[in-house]
Amino acid sequence: MKKSTNAFKIPFAGLKIGTHDYEFDIDKTFFEAFEGTLIDDANVKATLVLDKKETMMIVDYTVDGTVFTTCDRCNDPIELTVNGELRIIYKFGLEESEDE
């Protein structure tokens, strides 16, 4: 049975222009919502800064924490440190773009 990930959804259509900060604690229940996940448990903090503008939205994601899974070589449980940053720019409009 799939679990809901509604706690992680952001209703960006109703957001006012400007910067909005979000923080999420990601644990085992998040990954249980995805069929075939390889993550057994997690303790990850995800933060995002969403900058909504008239014609675009810029989102800066940061994750930091630990995930627990099974080693694909020896089949023992392992703990992996995860951390990273990502920026995604969403452009609004009907025209197609060749931008990366």
Short synopsis of the structure:
This protein has 100 residues and is mainly beta. The chain has one helix at 28-32; strands at 18-26, 39-52, 56-70, 77-91.
Keywords for this structure?
mainly beta; 100 residues; 1 helix; single chain; 4 strands; four-stranded antiparallel β-sheet; 53% strand
What does this structure look like?
- This protein is mainly β and 100 residues long.
- It has 1 helix and 4 strands, in the order βαβββ.
- The chain has one helix at residues 28-32, and strands at residues 18-26, 39-52, 56-70, 77-91.
- A 4-stranded antiparallel beta sheet has the order 1-2-3-4.
- β3 (56-70) and β4 form a beta hairpin.
- The chain starts with 17 loop residues before the first strand and ends in a 9-residue tail after the last strand.
- The mean pLDDT is 88.
The count of helical stretches stands at 1
Taking pLDDT < 50 over at least 5 consecutive residues as the criterion, the unreliable ranges are: none
Query: Could you estimate the helical fraction of the residues in percent?
Result: under 10%
**Distance from first to last alpha carbon:** 37 Å
User: How is the largest sheet built, in terms of strand order?
Assistant: 1-2-3-4
Number of strands: 4
Described by the principal axes of the CA atoms, the overall outline is: elongated
Decide which structural class fits the backbone.
Answer: mainly beta
If you compute it from the alpha carbons, what radius of gyration comes out, rounded to the nearest whole angstrom? 17 Å
